[in-house]
Structures are given as structure tokens and as C-alpha cells.
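Appendix C. Worked example: Kinase
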Amino acid sequence: MEAHRAHHPDADLEPLRRAYVLAESSHRGQMRKSGEPYITHPLAVTLILAELGAETTTLTASLLHDTVEDTEVTLDQVREQFGEEVRYLVDGVTKLEKVDYGAAAEPETFRKMLVATGNDVRVMSIKLADRLHNMRTLGVMRPEKQERIAKVTRDVLIPLAERLGVQALKTELEDLVFAILRPEEYEHTRELIAENAARPGDPLAEVADEVRGVLRESGIPAEVLIRPRHFVSVHRVARKRGQLRGTDFGRLLVLVNEDADCYGVLGELHTCMTPVVSEFKDFIAVPKFNLYQSLHTAVARPDGQVVEVLIRTHQMHKVAEAGVVALGNPYAPAADTPASDTATADAPSPGASADGERVDPTRPGWLSRLLDWQQAAPDPDTFWSTLREDLAQDREITVFRPDGGALGLPEGATCVDAAYAQYGEDAHACIGARVNGRLATLSTVLRDGDTVQLLMGQDPASEPSREWLEHAHTPAARIAIQRWLATHPAGGTDPAQPGESDDTCAGGVQVTAGPSEVTAEPRTASSRATEVPSPAPAATTAGPADPSASRSADPSALRPPVAPGAAPAHPAGGAHTPRSRRADVLVDRPGAAVRLAGCCTPVPPDEITGFAVRGGVVTVHRVECAAVAHMKSRGRAEIGVCWGDTAECRVSLVAESFGRPHLLADLTEAIAVQGVEIVSATVEPPSQQRVRHTYTLQLPDAAHLPALMRAMRDVPGVYDVRRAQHQPRTS
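Step 2, the predicted output written as C-alpha cells:
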């Protein structure tokens, strides 16, 4: 009660008194393995939380946390005497019986606890304090049981303490686990710390005095403390730096009143002392995913020793030490509502959460992701192993969607992980991504702050690739992909790397046509691109396809279906009548023949220029064409040219896309709807899951070109359409 009143002077202590009376009477006669009365355990757990500043409801539940599990007290009795909220917390930390669950009792207990934590993070606060006291008194257990409990603590509880920001519990748990699992290294580290304490003079104390003097002269009120490193931290520094010096055994902590004072302290230290710039980190402007805020810097002494300095406000320090425990009651109706009188409040509504890692500390993004994937892992062994893998990824990043929303992902996550985080199992249809506006493969590793636009296919039969498993880091992605592969043993082709089925746009293609759609028969990846010329057959009519023509190499099949209301590209039933249809060009050379250059395919109203070639023919180029600069460099004289009145023209367009079924059919249909004739087309072999199409098109009016390019870009899977621009040959 005294520890609680130190943080909450106005707290109502009556619920604590009644909870103690019930706990003491129900546990009376029970003893711990150490020989102490059992009530000493819930008392110790409650004291740990009280010293961290937990509010009354949490302390009430922690006093009762073992009553339902180990005594005759029931959850209904807890609800009647203390309210639904306390009942929920007690139920959340109550273990499942081995009699009912067998070997699955431990993983299923943690699953139950995590689900309860998703609705109220105070459940996990109680569990962490419970495990800390059990670890403190683990010495009475058999060595093999000590090791088993220590490993679970290392793999599950310590990462959870880190993610919830409860550093005070995390650091002590780390040291206790270190002592059990690595006793020799622990003993060596203990000796190093003892030797340093016995040395005369403390360089950290000297620097602390110097810092106090600097801040006193600058008029910034601050408290400067020495923070000794805990055992695991000293061990890590020793492995990183080798021989330890006096300043390696601790850090300076500077506590101020206001956020602005943090930066004022930083400026004074960097002005009056020698800063180590590479050590500066600003976790105030960009807090960690676990609520941690602080400025980190380092200064060098004249003898070369480096002193690390942490700068934060008193409130930041409280949150850094206690994490979610320092939030009081995070489910209070208003931010300024006292957290002390909530013992009889209703339980929090399930699933209350906000979008974003740092917006809602009561349901952070990592916890939401964990709760999502655990639903897809009904097998206890899969859940237990996946949970440990997930928690081992202890750093988080935030990436942003184009609409401004955020996705929280573990460090090392790829576009595959982002797809499943955003779309769930619908991500099977993902065909690519743009990262920071640039096209990226699905295997691209994301960085904190990236903007990710996921490109989704429209085919409902889309399937994930087995290769995606190599790039999936999140359990949600791996479980979704593995579940699909398990139910489709013959599946797992790469939707973004076509060439496995007969209706997929692949590398070089041989074009075939049925009565109502255009498909492409795949060839080997080493095949050369197939250029399809333009002799056109009779117009396509509805009716059954001729099976004998299903693998025809007839290039006329590339001609798109006739759009409703549009005239066929060539007379039905007749052979193609060759004719040169192009925009009129007026040339400043009477009688000269004119040819539009194929390298840049100029169309009105492009700015154009001309050059004379063999036979007196004048070739017309766009002025920005690379061939123009090449010919000028060789001394070729320009000839004046301009557009005439005729708007009909021929143009070459390059379409960049991800491969997917029916893509070629959809593209040619989009071109047909615009009333445009395909003169020729080339489909190149895929490269990095992308396919390049080059079309030479005859437009009835050059003014239709922008609309045509927009229509082609709107085809799902197409991410770019541009005018062709060939590089001149250098010889």
C-alpha cells in the first residue's frame, strides 16, 4: 500500500485490502517449494507492479492471480466481489490444466494469455511480474526444470517485456536467465563488474560532475545520474569492444522537465564537450515501437574513453522503465480520468485498437499481427514454434501505404510480408509492388519509413509462389502461403513469373486465338522474342474454336477482337490490301519522298525534324530522338519538315507489365476498344517477373494517342506505357 500510494497518492486502498484478505485466507496452508507461505508470492508480484506505478485494478488482480488456479475461489466469486475487470485479468493469467490439455497445456496457456492481452495489456504486465518473482526464487528447483523455465523466459517473456516497454522487468529477467543458461560467462561478467567497482576513482562520476557544471551554467534544471549497466549489457559490450574501460560499465542519465530541455541539454553537451556524432539517436522525434523516448549521444574524454549519455524527461523515464504499466488504466474513458478507482469498471471491449504502431499503446501493431496469425495456427506445436520465431524479431519498422495508412512490420520484412499484412489471404493475387514510387520485386526488403504500393492482379485464381516462402518473414505470410500450398499440392507457380500454363503471357510467344480471346503459348525462357507482322485474316466470328488451330502459329491471331460498334480493321473475308497510311508531312525539299522514322515513330503534334538518307528519302524524327543528336554529331544537315492536315498516323508503344493469365488478350482488347489497328507486336522474354510488349499501331487520329495510352495503363498488371525510343547504332 505504501508503494502504491507513492505513485497514486489519492488511490482507494479498500479493494487492495479486501483482495489481500481473500488471497491470504484462500492460500492459507499452502507452501512454496522454498518453504515459505504461498501468500508471499502474490504479495511479491504485487509489490513489483506497485513499485512500477501500476494502478489499483492491476494490483488487485495480481494479489488474486493464483487464487482461481490453486484454490477453491471461482471466477464468479471474483466478479461478485471485485467486478468484471478484475475477473478478466485474473482469468487471463490463469493456466490451463495439464489434465485437460496434456503437453499442449503450456503453449495453449500462452495463446490464451496473448488473446486476453489483446483486449487488456495489463494481463501481460501481471504475467511478467509473476515470472520475475518465480525466476528470483528458481534456485530451489531441479537444474533441468530451471533450464526449461529459463529458456521459455528467454524466448517468450523477455521479448514480450521488450515489446511492451517494461525495461525494468526485462533487464532483471535477462540477468536471471543469463545466470542459469550461461553460468560461466555470468560468473566472468560478475568478476569484471566487481574488479571495476574496486578500482580507485570513477571516470563516470567525473564526467557526471562536469555535465552538472555545464548545465548549471546554462541555466537548465536537470538531474544527472549514473546508470550502471546490468550483467547482460556488460557482457555484450565486452564482446563488442574487447578490453573494458571504466566508462563501459555504465551510462549517464540526464532527466529534465520539458521536451525542449532535452534538446537544450544536447546542445550544451555538444558545445562544451567532444561529441561522438555517430552515436547520436533521436528517439523523441521518432519513438520506438514500444513507447520508448530518449535522446542518445556520447562524449569523449581527453584520455579517449567514451561516455554514453541518455537524455529524457521525467515522464519519458517513467515510461522507459515501466512501459505499458506506466500508462495506468489505458482503457479509462478520458485521458485525464484518474486510474485509481477502476476496480469495478466493466471489462474493456474486445479488439479495441487503432491503426498504427505508435498510435495505440494498448494494442500495438505487433500484437494485432500476432493475434491474427495465431488464429491460422490451430496446431499447438506450430503456434509455439512460430511464436518464438516471431518474438525473436525484436525490432519493428513502419511502412506507409499510398493512402496514408501505416503497416507495422518486423525488421527484415519484404513486400511479400506487406502484402499479407494488408490483404490477408487475398495477397495470393499480388503481382508486384512499388517502393517509394519505384518498381520493386516482391522479395525487396523494406526499410523504416518506406512507402509501399502493392500491385494486385484481378484473376481470382491467382496463386502464391513457393519461392515466396523464402522471402516471407512474418508468421501471417508464411502460414497463409503454407496453408495454400498444402491444399494445392500441384500448385505454387509464380503468378509474377509466368510460363507454367498455356494461357500465360510468357517469354517469347507464339500467338494463337480462339473465337473470343487471344492467348499466348509459352516458349522456353531462352526463346527469342517473336515479332508478329500484320497480314490480317477475316474478321473473328463467334463459334466453337477449331481444335486443330489451338497451337497455330498464325500471326494474325494477335489482331484484337472487334469492339462493339467499331469497324473491322480489314475487310471481312478478304486478303489484306497493303496501303501506306500515315500522317502527311510537308518537307522543304520538292519531290522528295518522306518516311517516318521507326526509332521514335513521330505523330502529330510532336516537334519534328528531317534528314536526307540514301535515295533522296527524307526521314522524319522527333527532335528529342537519340538518332537526331547522333546524326548531328556526324555532320548531317537538317531538313525543314512540318505536319500536314492528315491526322492519321502510325506509332510504336512499349508496355511494361507483370505477367499474368490473359494479359495479352486484355491488352489487345483495350487497344481494339480505342479503334486502333495493331500493325505488329513483340513480346520479349520475362526479366525479373516483368514482361515488355512493343506494339506498332495505326491510329485514325493522332489526337487519340493520350487516351489510348491511358486505356493500356488501366489494364491490370500493366504499370507503364510509353512511346518507343530506340538507341541509334554506333558504327
